[in-house]
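Appendix C: a fully annotated inverse folding record. The material below is reproduced so that readers can follow the format used throughout the book. The structure is listed first as tokens, followed by the designed sequence.
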């Protein structure tokens, strides 16, 4: 009797496999391929990230100083070959700073715009907007600077955006607006933030409100 029941279970399993075996095999094969593809993609990204890190590390020396030529070259390589890594926008920011300080504002602006359009990290995009606004301010393109600051930004950068608004107002000769911007910035800076002292100096330089 037990052997008969066992045989019936085996026959039922065979019938089930005849009906559904092909579908199960396809699903299993698909799952295996998907897992292999996922593992392969992770490995590819891991390799790309390590390669990008190596390129980025070449920008500075052991003292942390940035080599202008290396910064430019690293940014070009990272933007071209590793645009999806976190190192590409960081290198672009360094290269933009180096270019601007060497008098190449056009290249600096191009790299900062690339960061805004491509960086996955919202903080890096905000840094690029602040630096573009500073370049526009230096060039007396005040409307352009204000448009950049009007973009949505992370709360952590609110104080810096307000500080820049104060700088633009000073440049325009609007002391009242500058004072309001600096006071708002101070309200958002942490008490221990070193840059807070810089904003306090700017505010004090405006004198008392009249």
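Designed amino acids, in order:
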């Amino acid at each position: 009797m037990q052997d008969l029941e066992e045989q019936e279970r085996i026959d039922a399993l065979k019938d089930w496999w005849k009906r559904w075996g092909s579908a199960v095999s396809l699903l299993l094969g698909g799952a295996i391929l998907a897992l292999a593809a996922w593992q392969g993609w992770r490995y590819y990204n891991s390799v790309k990230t390590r390669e990008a890190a190596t390129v980025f590390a070449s920008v500075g020396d052991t003292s942390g100083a940035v080599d202008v030529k290396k910064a430019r070259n690293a940014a070009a390589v990272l933007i071209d070959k590793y645009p999806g890594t976190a190192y590409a926008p960081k290198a672009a920011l360094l290269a933009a700073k180096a270019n601007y300080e060497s008098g190449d504002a056009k290249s600096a602006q191009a790299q900062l715009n690339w960061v805004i359009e491509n960086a996955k990290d919202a903080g890096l995009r905000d840094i690029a907007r602040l630096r573009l606004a500073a370049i526009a301010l230096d060039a007396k393109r005040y409307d352009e600077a204000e448009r950049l600051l009007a973009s949505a930004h992370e709360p952590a950068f609110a104080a810096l955006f307000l500080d820049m608004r104060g700088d633009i107002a000073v440049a325009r000769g609007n002391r009242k607006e500058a004072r309001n911007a600096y006071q708002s910035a101070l309200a958002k800076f942490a008490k221990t933030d070193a840059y807070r002292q810089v904003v306090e100096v700017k505010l004090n330089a405006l004198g008392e409100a009249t």
